[in-house]
Amino acid sequence: MVVRMRHTRAHTANRRSHHALENPTLVTCECGASRLKHRACPSCGRYRGRVIVDVAAKAAAKAARRASRSQEGEGAKEAAH
Ligand SMILES: [Zn+2]
Questions:
Q1: How far apart are the CA of 60 and the centre of ligand 1, in A?
Q2: How far apart are the C-alpha atoms of 49 and 28, rounded to whole Å?
Q3: For residue 5, which of 19, 36, 40, 53 sits 20 to 30 Å off, Cα-Cα?
Q4: What is the Å distance from ligand 1's center to 32 Cα?
Q5: Residue 80 neighbours by CB distance under 10 Å
Q6: Dihedral angle over CA of 18, 24, 27, 28, nearest 10
């Protein structure tokens, strides 16, 4: 598209008056950590009093994945040489 008319500074400022970012709404979880509203808690995995995410199992899976990935990285380096 081609710009046909020059916008005045006031017009640009009026449009940008709606562009400000809002602060995320934080609430205190029942575990004591602060979390985003309407999101499961990242530290205890609970939402509305129920456990939704198994945080311990997720952390263990992430550690295992990281370990296997670092081994793969070393193998790739050796293959390149
Ligand atoms: Zn929590």
A1: 18
A2: 12
A3: 19
A4: 6
A5: 6
A6: -160
Helix (H) or strand (E) holding 9, with range, is: helix 9-16
Cα(48) to ligand 1 centroid in Å equals 10
> Full-prediction pTM beyond 0.90?
no
List per-block mean pLDDT (blocks of 10 residues) for the chain, which spans 81 residues: 86 96 93 93 90 88 91 60 55
State residue 81's pLDDT score.
Answer: 55
How many Å apart are CA 10 and CA 23, to the nearest integer?
Answer: 26
Distance 27 CA to ligand 1 centre (A): 10
How many A from CA of 44 to the centre of ligand 1?
4
Q: How far is the CA of 7 from the centre of ligand 1 (A)?
A: 49
pLDDT at 3: 78
